[in-house]
Each structure stands twice: as C-alpha cells, then as structure tokens.
Specification:
Elements: H1 3-13, E1 31-32, E2 38-43, E3 49-56, H2 83-95, E4 101-105, H3 112-128, E5 135-139, H4 146-155, E6 158-160, H5 168-172, H6 180-198, E7 203-210, H7 217-231, E8 235-240, H8 247-250, H9 265-285, H10 307-314, E9 321-322, H11 328-331, H12 339-351, H13 357-362, E10 373-374
Parallel strand pairs: 3-4, 4-5, 5-6, 6-7, 7-8, 9-10
Antiparallel strand pairs: 1-2, 2-3
Helix pairs in contact: 2-3, 3-4, 4-6, 7-9
Bound molecules: iron/sulfur cluster.
Iron/sulfur cluster (SF4) binds near residues 63, 65, 71 and 108.
Length: about 375
C-alpha cells in the first residue's frame, strides 16, 4: 500500500469518531474537504476556528472495545502510517491550504507507550523538520506513562484521553482491557498535574461514547461536572454509539454529505447527544450546576424539550427577569438568551432603557420567551 492508500483507510476510519463533528447553532460542523476527506472544526483558545485533518496513525489494535470497529476481534483492513509518511502528507495538505491543523489518534499497536512514541514522533517531525506551528490535537493512549504524556504535552496544542464511560462498572461492559481508574483517570490526573507544574497552555479534553454501556444521562452529566471541577478540562465531547455491525445500515446518511436534519432513525439517536451538549454548555457557559438539570424517572434528559426551558418551567418564582436591572447570571437563565445576547443587553442598557421585545430584536436577541421577561 502506498501512503495515499493508507491515509484513505486511516482518515476514513476516523469517521466513526464524531467528536468535533457536531454543529452547534452558527458553528460549522464536520464537512467533506474538496480532497474527499472529512475535515473537522476546532476552536483555538483565542476563539479562532481551525480545520483539522483527523486521522489515525494506525487502525491495528490489541484492545477489545465493544463499540469500536477496529477492535482486535474484527475483520477490518489494517495499516499503519510511519511518522515521516504521515508528516509528509499532512504538510502537503497544509501547504495547499486544505487543512490548517491535525487531529491524530491511533489504535493501540502494542503497548500504550509504543503507540504514543509513533504519534509523538509524527508531531516532532512536523514541529522540528517542517517548522509547523499550528494546531495539533494528540490523543493520549490509556495507560501511557508520565514520560510519554509529558512529551505529548510538549508537542501538542491539545491532548485528550477518552474516558468513554462514566464509571469503572460501565467501562467494564465495554472492554476487558482498559481500566477506568488505573489507565484513564490516572492519565487525566497526570495531564492536569503536568499542566500546572509546567505552566503549559496545552489544553485537555475528553470524550464519552454515549449509549454503549446502558448508562443514563444522569451518570454522564454527573461525571462531566466532576471532570470539569477536578481536572479543569476545556471541553467534554459526546459521541453517539454506533453499533459497528449496523453503523452503515442505520447511519448511511451520516457518512454521506447530506445534512443531519434529513436523517430519521439517526436523528432520534443523535438527539440524546444534542441534549448532552446543551447541558455541557449550561455547565460551562451559563453558570448552571448539576442540581439545576432535570432528569426523567429513568435518569435521562428529555428528548422533547431543552434542559434550560425545563429549568425555567420548574422555577416560576425566578421570573419574570427584569431586562433593565437583572445581572448577568439572571439574564443567562432566560430561555433563548445566551452569553452573546447577555453581553449585548448589558452593553446597550448602559446607553438607554430597553423597552420592548422589538428593542431586543434590534440588538440581535431573538428570544421567544416573552413571558419570562419584564421591561
Ligand atoms: S483502543 Fe481505540 S482503536 Fe482500540 S479497540 Fe479501543 S477504541 Fe478501538
């Protein structure tokens, strides 16, 4: 196989991993580049967007994750890109302005450290030989040593170790090889400690696979809130479980170029992921905490109504919020008003009184939640 053929297989393999693929309101989602491969948006700490080539270094793997099409028990064409091959082809795409960053993951080919060594060698070539200063997201393989993690932090803009499940018990249902505390949480703790000790700007994120272990949304939200608190993660991503045996049957449109809204069975499944992202925004940007989130009797989020509207309906004593007097925290509780809208309201009312919904519309704040506001 030549390098191009290998990249075709390995970059295509990443399509099952949908973290960063989602579209949130005005933000761009995953898109197909003119060179035929999926490219993924990512936000820099500055807020600037970059577009990433997402690929595996290798899809060979010694692990047995039940949700993964590349686990050792599955019959799938395997290949590995050598560090200089991958660095070379990435620079070609970068120089032709097709991508401006790299999201590099890998199956575990042998030990965690041996796999990390290949991935870090790729990024080392990009940084040293090609003087590439752009965005690199490097996956940390569960069980990696402190030395391997330290090297990843030195090279990457962002690192992540996938938590996959909200507890050790849930993870055991997915794999017999990855250990929740010893391999995953301990790697996250090491990253957190090294970030503080080295004062590095390298970010840390993680990802859950949603729906593979029978876990509830309450378990995921509780674990998410704990991760933000304990390890100061920049982001938590949620990736809907796609049964590897049914993925192309249930999600044929997902892997084509049609927009997500056109999907049927898949739309239902992805609504759960969407609700988790809404909760994640409420926790990170709106000042909500876990106790503000409502779950049904089964411990799941409503698929029919967004979590912020549910909170507002359950707290009539909090409303109406006075547009001209409320503070930032109060305004953020109003359904339909987000951090940008709040900023505009606070800035506009320094100049003049806001008297009507029309005034809000004029500011670009399009809330339909009139009953929650007073002027
Ligand atoms: S370690 Fe990664 S590549 Fe290997 S089976 Fe698990 S999810 Fe798949």
């Amino acid at each position: 196989m030549n390098t191009e053929q290998k990249l075709n297989i390995l970059a295509d393999s990443s399509k099952f991993d949908l973290a960063c693929a989602c579209k949130y309101k005005h933000e761009p989602g995953r898109m197909r580049g003119d060179f035929g491969r999926w490219i993924y948006p990512a936000a820099l700490p500055s807020g600037r967007k970059v577009f990433l080539l997402k690929t595996l270094q290798s899809n060979a793997c010694v692990n047995d994750c039940r949700y993964c099409p590349f686990n050792q028990n599955r019959n799938h064409p395997r290949c590995t890109l050598k560090p200089d091959e991958l660095a070379h082809i990435f620079m070609q795409l970068h120089n032709s302005k097709r991508v401006n960053g790299l999201f590099l993951s890998s199956g575990a080919c042998g030990s965690a450290d041996a796999t990390m060594a290949q991935m870090s060698a790729t990024v080392e070539i990009l940084r040293r030989r090609h003087k590439f200063k752009g965005f690199v997201h490097l996956k940390v393989i569960p069980g990696a040593s402190e030395a391997a993690i330290e090297q990843a932090l030195r090279l990457a803009t962002r690192v992540s170790v996938n938590i996959e499940a909200p507890s050790a018990e849930r993870l055991r249902q997915l794999t017999s090889k990855k250990r929740f505390h010893e391999d995953i949480i301990s790697a996250m703790r090491t990253i957190h400690r090294l970030r503080q000790e080295k004062n590095t700007r390298c970010q840390q994120t993680t990802q859950f696979v949603v729906g593979a272990a029978g876990e509830t949304d309450r378990e995921i939200v509780t674990a998410t809130e704990r991760l933000y608190r304990k390890f100061r993660l920049e982001r938590v991503y949620f990736s809907t479980y796609q049964d590897p045996d049914r993925a192309l049957e249930v999600f044929p449109l997902l892997f084509s170029d049609l927009p997500v809204e056109k999907k049927t069975e898949a739309s239902e499944i992805f609504m759960r992921e969407h609700r988790l992202y809404q909760v994640d925004f409420l926790l990170r940007k709106y000042g909500f905490d876990r106790d503000d989130i409502s779950f049904n009797e089964e411990g799941n989020l409503s698929l029919h109504q967004d979590p912020k509207t549910i909170w507002a309906r359950n707290h009539p004593e909090f409303f109406p919020v006075k547009v001209n007097h409320a503070d930032r925290r109060q305004l953020l509780r109003v359904p339909g008003i987000g951090p940008i809208g709040v900023r505009r309201i606070l800035s506009a009312r320094r100049q003049r009184k806001i008297s009507s919904r029309q005034d809000l519309k004029y500011l670009g704040v399009r809330t339909s939640a009139g009953a929650y506001l007073a002027y």
